[in-house]
Amino acid sequence: MSDGAQDWRPAISHERLGARAALLARAREFFAARTVLEVDTPLMVNAAVSDVHIEAACVELAAQPAAAGDAAVSRRLFLHTSPEYAMKRLLAAGSGDIYQICHVVRGMENGRLHNPEFTLIEWYRLGFSLEALMDEVEALVRALLGDAATTRATERLTYCEAFRRETGLDPLSATTADLERVARPLAYSGAAGAPGASAAGVDRDEWLELLMGAVVGPRLGRGALTFVHRYPASQAALARLDPVDPRVALRFELYCEGIELANGFHELTAASEQRARFARDNEERTRRALPRVEADERLLAALAAGLPQCAGVALGFDRIVMLASGASHIEQVLPFPTARA
Hints:
This protein is an alpha+beta fold. The chain has helices at about 5, 15-35, 85-90, 130-145, 160-165, 175-185, 205-215, 270-285, 295-305, 315-325, and strands at about 35-40, 45, 55-60, 75-80, 100-105, 115-125, 155-160, 225-230, 250-255, 260-265, 310-315.
């Protein structure tokens, strides 16, 4: 355990603390000008995210008998990794356009750009196309970055274009052997021995994810705000597939100076397809020797009731503060990183 007498002080400077507050105010002004409603959903939720790349933290509540007429509260809950599921329930109930600025928690995240607890700005726009949402994300990011964005160009590439430019491979047609060859210098072992994996124990999507995270992504957004859109259908997450080309999903990410800032979707609205994706996530979890998770039945019920056509995005606020203030490590823009929380 660390010595509290030595690390009780905040990690952030007074100047950056003020800058952080100013950017939060600017974000709220941005959405107020567009009449997007601010909402506040629970930090503790009953269902964990199923995405194999995200680790949800759980909490145990002390046993408390339910009073007469009250619903019982589960003793084992999860800290949300995103407010997405709850916000979609609000959308299905008729909330209209909404946004939220909140803390989220993800396990297995630590490093220069990662702290287990961090701040997201997440919002949903009814009737927006993926392109319209990219326009709005760019407007907000430029407003938040201020002078740090004035000389930056705008760049929009498909996932295939970005992948070909940085690796020379077409991600939709390259063989597993080709992907493995390009990734070999990274010395990645992956889920060795998993059924359906390559000879090295890594399946095709793992190679794509590795190359995007370690080779392609870090080269994006140099002097620009670079949007990468239309990810492979196998990486759709909660996005719709492109009706023009179902090999790809209506999903984008935003990069600046090699840093991923945002992840956006034209949202999937079909409950049956969402249930099938939850099931496939669990199959992949089993393959990777990860614990299975129960599907969020409340989200599925909301989708069945009718989620309006919308596009949504999550933006990493702390990384925005890093870029705006010139910080080199996320701990420099957090009052109390998890190590000294």
